[in-house]
Every structure is written in structure tokens, then in C-alpha cells.
Fold this protein.
Amino acid sequence: MTKEEKDAVASFLDLAGDYLAGGYRKNRTAPEFTDDTIREFPSPAEQGLPETVSPADSLEKVAADISRCNRCGLCSTRTNTVPGEGVPHPLVMVIGEGPGADEDATGRPFVGRAGQLLDRMLDSKGKIGLSRNKNCYIANVVKCRPPQNRNPLPDETAACMSFLRRQITLLKPLLILAAGNTAAKALLDTTEGITRLRGSFTTFTLGNRDIPLLPTFHPSALLRDESLKVPVWDDMKTMRAKLCELDAAYAGLMADAPL
Ligand code: URA
């Protein structure tokens, strides 16, 4: 709870107490409340609870909760929260690290140089045929920009994970593409680096669903090192092959776009 929320509840209880005592007002000094900071955010599975989503939950509600979030220090330096964007029930949910300067300024994920490269990778001149407007959803592990684009800290990632889990539960993507070290490590709960993880499917389990997850390099890494284009193109082809197995309509489209 925030300090503001606690102040409001305390003042309501004071008033109600006075009312029940016949309107007699006592002089009180208000208690000094502070904001709660959540350091650890265990998943339902870690707490031994089933993974469920309330029937009332929605992507809009997740975005509204993110916009009010102050679970970690990133809330004090953000301009906008960046919940994610794309289509519901996408073929692919792309998960990156966290917003950069352009995303913080606009509230939209992957809109800077790395984002434009991501859009080109996902479409690959129609050979992969994916886009955030048609069949993808794009989000990040953390929803607020880390200062100076540093990597998110473990407590920041942990505090944000429940938003990502709610988004995945609601979106039900056919496949997850984890872009970069932070996303792969957070989703797979491993310390293994992206160079070893990339290119092979593993699964992300949520409730009773096993979602195929493919780690690949982050587009920012490609901007720094052109040689990563070859393995990333291999990963795009691996993803295309899996999607063709999983979705007949996509397989039909790809039949007209030979590699
Ligand atoms: N890098 C990310 O990981 N996410 C964005 O939204 C932009 C750049």
C-alpha cells in the first residue's frame, strides 16, 4: 500500500470511530506512514498455489495496475510505464528486457532503433510474416525504464514478474520469443547465458499450459555486433518451422513465402 492510501484509510477509521462515539472528536497526531516496497514476488507456483487468472482480469486492467505500480525504485525515474502492445491471443509473444529512452517517452515497447530492427526481424520480408499489428504481442520483463539503460536488478525483475505472468495467462500465445539475456534468464529461472540458450526450444509452464519458448539474441546486441545476424536468422527459421507445426493458417501463409 502507498503512504497516501494508508493515510486515507487511517483518516476514514478515525472519522468512523468518532462517529460511533457520538460525534466526539479527539485530538490526534496522524501516524507517519510510508510506502510499502515489495522486494520479493514469488510466483503462485513458488507459493504452492495453482496459477489462475481472475475472470475479471484483462490486459487493460494489467496496464492500469502497471501505471500505478510503485513496487520498486524504477517508478521514481520513469516518464511512462510501458505495458506492451499487440494483438490478443498472438501467435508469438516477444519478451524483451525493459524500456529504453524512446519507449519511456512514448509508453510503447520497442519503438527505438532496436525496436525497428525487431520489427524487420519478425517480418523478414514476409518470410517470417510476424508483426505487432497482425499476430504478435510485444512486452518486456520490466515495465519501467532502468536509468541509463542499465540491466534491471533482480529485485526489479522479481517485482514485475507477476504482471508478465498475468499478461501471458491472458494472451495465451502459441509461442514465446525471449529476446536477450534478461528475458531468457527471468523466464527460465536460469543463470545460463543467452549464447548457450539461444536457438533451442524449451518450455515455459504457466498453470496447466506448456508454452514453447525460444531464446534468441536481443536486437540491441545485433546493432552492436553484425555477426549475430546469422544465428538470429537461424532462430527466426526455427521459430517459423515450429509455428507451421502449431498453426495451420500460418503454415498456409508460409507456403507462399519459401525460404
Ligand atoms: N529494449 C527492450 O528490451 N525493450 C524495449 O522495449 C526497447 C528496447
